[in-house]
Specification:
The protein is of the alpha+beta class and about 280 residues long. The chain is built from 8 helices and 17 strands. A hairpin with a 2-residue loop joins strand 3 and strand 4. The chain is globular and about 60 Å long.
Length: about 280
């Protein structure tokens, strides 16, 4: 089975490429760490030969913690992507294998070749930071001012912030514990904190911060009263769908009810809309 001949370059705008992984070719991936309580599980989906079952222990790269690669053997390694290969079973069994690929990797530490089974549907399971992505967002973030949601600042500093207070990004790092991208911020009073980039960007949940430019745009569109409420994650009837997304992020799913109401389902809460306006919070 041959690697794709696609040569579309990586634009460094996204860490996880979903169902279009071929631009990873030529990029360097940095393997992220795990919380202490997960380290004994090792790293899953690393194999020596992508044509052999990944559950065969003698095919696990840097075997083994359970049936996975040893955590201590791979933690902190970088890998260069040399090819992207379709799953060997993708033709004979499109479901579920059509959504799986193998990234052919060169381990930068020891120059060995291995393969990582890449699932196009599971962004949260992707264990790498693309070095080019990290460098780009670092260059684009340092020196910029951000407005944080009030609860986030209170959690990080123990102080009640002023609504709309500006925090300057002073640095971006890969923190030591879990090797995740983190951003450092400080305000004019010299108070500083460090926060995971995914929380700022809203990678998995609602964004906890906005660039000064984006915040000014929201404030102008929504009005000062609504904007300040959203910084506290507070919703009220009549708010638009966009306002609710800013406060709570994208819903897990939506349902169209028989009375013409649209229901947004979050983990433990529900929102109801008619004509694009919020009518009830449950």
């Amino acid at each position: 089975m041959k690697a794709s001949s696609q040569t579309v370059g990586y634009d460094s705008l996204t860490n996880f490429l979903g169902d279009k992984p071929h631009p990873y070719i030529g990029e360097v991936l940095y393997l992220k760490g795990k919380p202490a309580f997960q380290r004994n599980e090792g790293y899953e989906n690393f194999v020596i030969d992508y044509k052999i079952d990944k559950l065969k222990k003698d095919n696990v790269y840097q075997c083994c913690d359970y049936y996975n690669a040893k955590y201590d053997a791979l933690h902190g390694h970088s890998f260069k992507v040399t090819a992207v290969l379709p799953h060997p079973k993708a033709v004979s069994k499109p479901y579920p294998y059509a959504s799986l690929f193998f990234l052919q990797l060169q381990d930068v530490v020891n120059n060995q070749t291995c393969y990582y089974e890449y699932d196009t549907k599971l962004a949260s399971k992707f264990p790498f930071t693309v070095v080019g992505y990290y460098e780009k967002i670092k260059n684009n973030s340092i020196g910029n001012n951000y407005v944080f949601k009030n609860a986030e600042v209170r959690k990080l500093t123990g102080k009640n912030p002023q609504p709309g207070e500006l925090w300057k990004c002073t640095d971006m790092i890969i923190e030591n514990e879990e090797n995740k991208i983190a951003m450092k911020f400080a305000n004019g009073a010299g108070i500083s904190f460090t926060v995971p980039y995914d929380e700022v960007a809203g990678t998995y949940n609602a964004a906890e911060a906005f660039t000064e430019t984006a915040a000014a745009g929201y404030k102008q569109r929504f009005g000062n009263e609504n904007w300040n409420a959203l910084l506290y994650n507070q919703l009220k009837n009549g708010m638009s769908e966009e306002m609710c997304r800013v406060a709570w992020g994208e819903p897990n799913r939506t349902n169209n009810l028989s009375d013409g109401t649209e229901q947004w389902v979050y983990e433990t809460r529900y929102l109801y809309f008619k004509g694009g306006k919020l009518t009830r919070v449950q």
